[in-house]
Amino acid sequence: MAEYDPTAGLVVDRNLALELVRVTEAAALAASRWIGRGDKNAADGAAVDAMRKAFDTVAISGTVVIGEGEMDEAPMLYIGEQIGLGGPLCDIAVDPLEGTSITAKGGTNAIATVALAERGGFLHAPDIYMDKIAVGPGLPEGIVDLDAPVAENLRELARAKKCAINDLMVCTLDRDRHKEMIQACRDAGARITLLGDGDVSGVIAVSQPEAGIDIYIGSGGAPEGVLAAAALRCIGGQLQGRLLFENEEQTVRAREMGITDPQRKYRVDEMAAGNVMFAATGVTNGAMLRGVRRTASGAVTHSIVMRSKSGTVRYVEGHHNFALKPAAFVA
Ligand code: VTB
Ligand code: MG
Ligand code: MG
């Protein structure tokens, strides 16, 4: 008989985090076959398919709450889908290929990503835009705010970081809708990094000192906001998010998903509460992760995995041997 292990409950937890890496590795490997081939839907489909299969080997009773869409529009990893082998009840947020266009063009920063929370831990964000503002750890709560003018946010941040505004690096998606905000940052004297796609890693960058990003500002996918919040729960940092409703249909849909106050500004712990885990694998090279590299016999993957409970962040380099395990079965 096995000896009594007072940390047994934790062991399940810990192992689950590493299991998630297998899931993101599988999606990244599948997507990597489509890098630069100009077909973002094929890349996305390959990632979704591989991730879905990989979940079949994970010992959870998971419900997809942030997924590929509604049941009638997404065949796999749709919202409400039950996944996993059976095990602890949990909610799952996925973006099997965050950066489909980047992948199709062979650009930078595409990742495969997953987050896990205890049942009820994630905001059930509809697939609409979310306004986001994020800064790294160690700053006073509320130092920046979605409702404050850009110049004021930058001034406060520079003051707290004891630097000049022109030392600050802002990160945002390169979109026409951000024109005014970008101009306001430039007028205030800050520097800016414009991303083609991929605001999950853009937001996470604020909490990675080596990324050199001081603040993320701008609107992107709400599901991506929840995934980024899951990561920040583990590594610290502030993210404020507010859903952006463009029409009545979206408001109604959100109400059905339990969102009663459309104006609400969500903090990290309101988007990703309780015990949370986050994993991502690079598809193409980025500031956070290296992309999938093909070798003569297989591929090398680079992943990050973290847990809110311990705050431990691990980088995992996976060397996959396709002679023993073809890419389709890497999970
Ligand atoms: C962002 C970005 C994603 O969607 O969330 C973005 O991180 C927002 O939508 O990679 P727009 O492209 O319409 O600006 C993606 O680009 C695609 O999911
Ligand atoms: Mg996606
Ligand atoms: Mg996405």
TrEMBL record:
Keyword Manganese appears in the UniProt entry: yes
Name of the protein in its database record: Fructose-1,6-bisphosphatase
PANTHER family: FRUCTOSE-1,6-BISPHOSPHATASE 1 CLASS 2-RELATED, FRUCTOSE-1,6-BISPHOSPHATASE CLASS 2
Protein residues bound to Mn(2+) 2: 95, 98, 224
Binding positions for substrate per the UniProt entry: 98-100, 129, 175-177, 197-199, 221
Keywords: Carbohydrate metabolism, Hydrolase, Manganese, Metal-binding
Binding site for Mn(2+) 1: 44, 68
GO cellular component, one term: cytosol
Transmembrane segments: none
Record's catalysed reaction(s): beta-D-fructose 1,6-bisphosphate + H2O = beta-D-fructose 6-phosphate + phosphate
Cofactors demanded by this protein: Mn(2+)
A Gene Ontology biological process term: gluconeogenesis
Family under the similarity heading: Belongs to the FBPase class 2 family.
